[in-house]
Amino acid sequence: MSSCSFRVRIALNLKGLKYEYVPVNLLKGEQRSPEFLKLNPIGYVPVLVDGDMVLSDSLAILLYLDEKYPQHPLLPSDLRRKAINLQVTNTISSGIQPLWNLGVMDCIKQKVGQEEIVPWVQCHVRKGFAALEELLKDHAGRYATGDEVFLVDLFLAPQLHSTIKMFNLDMTEFRLLSRLNEAYSQLPAFQDALPEKQPDAPSSSTA
Ligand SMILES: N[C@@H](CCC(=O)N[C@@H](CS)C(=O)NCC(=O)O)C(=O)O
After folding, report:
1. Atom 4 (ligand 1): residue with closest C-alpha?
2. Fold entry, domain 79-191
3. Given 108, 130, 146, 207, which is the most exposed site by the fewest CB atoms within 10 A?
4. Do residues 156 and 93 lie in contact, with contact meaning Cβ atoms separated by under 8 Å?
5. Which fold has domain 3-71?
6. Cα of 44 from ligand 1 centre, angstroms
7. pTM, whole model, 2 decimals?
8. What ipTM does the predicted assembly reach?
9. What residues have CB less than 8 Å from 67, skipping those under 6 apart?
10. What are the tens digits of pLDDT across the range 131-151?
11. What is the distance between the alpha carbons of residues 3 and 156, in angstroms, rounded to a whole number?
12. Residues near ligand 1 with C-beta < 6 Å?
């Protein structure tokens, strides 16, 4: 169900890399098991194990894969487009996704009440999406920063997919993001990375 793991699967698919998929059930708390904490002491997925290399943050994993496997580069060579990619990627990974992480939602449920989860997530995601529309409006082509898929698309697609699906977000005011979401849904590398396509997904899986 993790949007952060979804990012990494898209990159592995784009680069044509074979990998062994090891499921970690977040709803069962498997990310807090002693074995998993040895891989990532903060108890978050994804983790990439590549020989003796253990990496536990999606951005670090993506940049590592990009250097090691340069086919289908994730960052554009053009300096300005590269900078926009990094800016928007970081806006999603630090300004949107952490605000609706499972641990945050659990905390709201316990300290404030279950009924406050959806309004909380909708408020923060809408604020983030409004910013993304503004940040990307002068850069988007078919995808977020032109007509090729880059790093920012690997962050955007899972964010859109997960929040629209889980929180029934009304996207009518986010016209650019809606168009991009539609474009991503046509790409095999993105389709095959969907949470609901993974071997351990329950039939009603959301991300
Ligand atoms: N910055 C990290 C964030 C990782 C993260 O928040 N992972 C979430 C799933 S997308 C998680 O494992 N949540 C489990 C929890 O909150 O207990 C990354 O990009 O990999």
Report:
1. 44
2. Glutathione S-transferase Yfyf (Class Pi); Chain A, domain 2 (1.20.1050)
3. 130
4. no
5. Glutaredoxin (3.40.30)
6. 4
7. 0.96
8. 0.99
9. none
10. 999 999 999 999 999 999 999
11. 10
12. 2-4, 26, 31, 43-46, 57-59, 93, 101-103
